[in-house]
Amino acid sequence: DSAEASPLVVFENIERCNPKCLRMLLENISGLTEDADFTVELIPEINVAVATFIKHIDTKEFVEKCSQHKRVREFNMTARLLESTQSIKAENLPESISSDYLTVYFESARNGGGPVADVQLFPEENSAIITFCDHKGNS
């Protein structure tokens, strides 16, 4: 059901399309404006970008348009909906952070959280993996 589709679209194999070019390409395909209607987060370590649509659109239809678009094909990029996950990675955490604090923080409805099943701290990289009881609590 398109109404339930994720507002997040993953673009893979982005190395041949610089960030500014990618943003313009997404504006051209969607007819929307970056910042007002969507944002793009680059994850260069894994050659991926994630577009988050603020304005409600049919993301399944958008992914289909992308897969047929001449420029997307020329760049050998692929687009797909971001699947739901039960775990997230929190980075740049203060050194003194505790798993109890993170649990309470991510369980807070005000922070968009939900019931937390597990928190794994990685102090050497100031990060943690937070696993939720269900995938609704990780927006």
UniProtKB/TrEMBL annotation:
Pfam family, one: RRM_PARP14_2
Domain PARP14 second RRM: 5-83
Record-given protein name: PAR14 polymerase
Lineage: Eukaryota, Metazoa, Chordata, Craniata, Vertebrata
